[in-house]
Amino acid sequence: MKLSIVIPVFNELNSIRTILDLVQKAPLPKGVEREIVVVDDCSTDGTRDILKTVKKKNITILYHEINQGKGGALRTGYANCTGDVIIVQDADLEYDPNEYSILLQPILEGKADVVYGSRYLKGNRHRVLGYWHTMGNKLLTWVSNMFSNLYLTDMETCYKVFKREIVSKIVLTENRFGVEPEFTAQIANLAYRDGLEIYEVPISYNGRTYAEGKKIGMKDAFRAIWCIIKYNNSTAARLFKYFFMGLLVALSQLISMIFLVEVLGFRSSLMQNIGYAISIEVSIIIGFILHSLITWQYNFNRLSEISAKMAQFHLVTGLSFAVRQVLFYVLLSTGVGYQLNTLIGIGVAILMNFIGYDRIVFGVKIIKKD
């Protein structure tokens, strides 16, 4: 078996020689050979000059003429791998290549398709760093778990090991550190579709401080949250996005109604009823746009398909509204108070709309696993 070690590099003058030496000498399980794929992401501090002096048969060095971020460097690296298994190695000495055997073990034993090296599982050493940075990582992992329906302890870890054929099944588009949650989302989607097995193993961690050159920042944290929302497509993820978009849709109806009454003068009883109908239609259109673009990320192939899906969206929404009205009348006649009655109706409408949008409008298929 061949292991491809992808090393994205940007301005790592002080560590590049050391990391290449460590990776080259790292012990591997018997029968595993290594290739090292280094991608220099347009370094400007002299890193590139050092890389040009490296002459090893099993090391491939690729150069970006424009800085593309870690995500861009990883895409280039993956495209040039020839191994059976790929592992990502940062060049900053935070992660120890001597732990490759631990990371590879679940795959070699046939138990896993993907392995995450977790800094937060008990059983290994780590450098003590800032509390809030650690909590930020754990918070991002927690949010990612909610949307992906995976139970990871360290989504942001550099050490991700996976079979090379997985690369052909996912499309990574993020250029900076957003590639970490994007990768996890894509893996979760594959696990849901194809039944991938995912393992975590404990690793050590010698994290850098910002004074020592750490590059990830608050901007990347906000981007990570957006990537978690955008790329996850599990039922749990769609439900979370559905409820959040639903709040925006309800807000849009309220704003529309206020605009019609207070600005356009729809003040009489008749005009307010007309305005209410208009505000409902506005909210349905906004809901269709938000749910198609964000919740279900539906790709329309032609203009006529948009019209057809809009009609289906109206039909599902109208059907749930009709059921809600009938249910309200039935429950009211049996003595159920209007408060509880209204809450029941809202719950039924929310559930019916989600199932209708999910199975009919946007055509998500139920996946059965043996």
Short summary:
It is built from eleven helices and seven strands. By secondary structure, it is of the alpha/beta class.
Percentage of helical residues?
40-55%
Name the CATH superfamily classification of the largest domain. Spore Coat Polysaccharide Biosynthesis Protein SpsA, Chain A
Overall tally of structural domains: 2
Distance between the termini: 29 Å
Q: What's the average pLDDT? A: 89
**So how many helices?**
11
Radius of gyration: 26 Å
Number of strands: 7
Largest sheet: 7 strands, mixed
Give the strand content.
5-15%
Shape designation: elongated
Helices and strands: which structural class?
Answer: alpha/beta
Strand order of the largest sheet: 3-2-1-4-6-5-7
State the main characteristics.
single chain, 370 residues, alpha/beta, Spore Coat Polysaccharide Biosynthesis Protein SpsA, Chain A, 2 domains, disordered C terminus
Written overview of the protein:
- 52% of the residues lie in helices and 11% in strands.
- It is elongated.
- α6 packs parallel to α7.
- It folds into two domains: 2-232, Spore Coat Polysaccharide Biosynthesis Protein SpsA, Chain A, CATH 3.90.550.10; 236-361, no CATH class.
- It is an alpha/beta fold and 370 residues long.
Task: Describe the SSE topology.
Elements: E1 2-9, H1 16-25, E2 33-40, H2 47-51, E3 59-63, H3 69-79, E4 85-88, H4 100-108, E5 114-118, H5 131-148, E6 160-163, H6 179-194, E7 198-202, H7 218-231, H8 235-263, H9 269-295, H10 303-333, H11 338-361
Parallel strand pairs: 1-2, 1-4, 2-3, 5-7
Antiparallel strand pairs: 4-6, 5-6
Helix pairs in contact: 5-7, 6-7, 8-9, 10-11
